[in-house]
Amino acid sequence: MAAITKAPHLPIWRAAQLLLVWAEKTVRGFARYHKYTVGAQIRQQAMLVCRGVLRAQAYSGPARLAEVGALHLVAEEMKLLLQLAKEVRAFRSWAEFDQGVGLALAVARQCAGWRKALQSAQASRFEGQRDGVPGVPQAEGVQLA
Fold first, then answer.
1. I need a labelling partner for 142 at 20 to 30 A (CA). Which of 57, 89, 101, 119 fits?
2. What pLDDT band is residue 124 in, cutting at 50, 70 and 90?
3. Which residue has the higher pLDDT, 127 or 81?
4. Does pLDDT of 128 surpass 60?
5. What is the pLDDT of residue 101?
6. Burial, 58: exposed, middle or buried (Cβ in 10 Å; 0-12, 13-18, 19+)?
7. Which neighbouring-strand residues pair with 130?
8. Crossing angle (nearest 10°) for helices 62-87 and 94-125
9. Which of these, 77, 55, 82, 81, lies nearest to 66 by C-alpha position?
10. φ and ψ at residue 130, rounded to 5 degrees
11. How many CB atoms are closer than 10 A to CB 17?
């Protein structure tokens, strides 16, 4: 595992941190019923997003790819919770909802980009491997016996 202290330098970390701060401030203004139901879930999910960024940064190779995939799912679940909160009218204004969804979308987009970069790096690493023989490229039209 890599050093966890590198995560605060990632753009996705900044987006996740902004989402967490937004969630804490916004849920504070919810009505009591919404604060302790959907608001508590929004706060927990925002914390899971931050934890997911740290976990993804801490791993390398295929494990990092798996963690980034899990982080993307957590970001998508955050968008679902925000939509639910909008439906039950927990937000004080449309602007509050719009800002939260924008932050959640930013995290989800960065997750998708990070996952795509990791997949392309992994694919280029194994590009020279064919037929399960590592490091032995096969010429066109030639079959291994």
1. 119
2. confident
3. 81
4. no
5. 97
6. middle
7. 133
8. 160
9. 55
10. -135, 145
11. 17
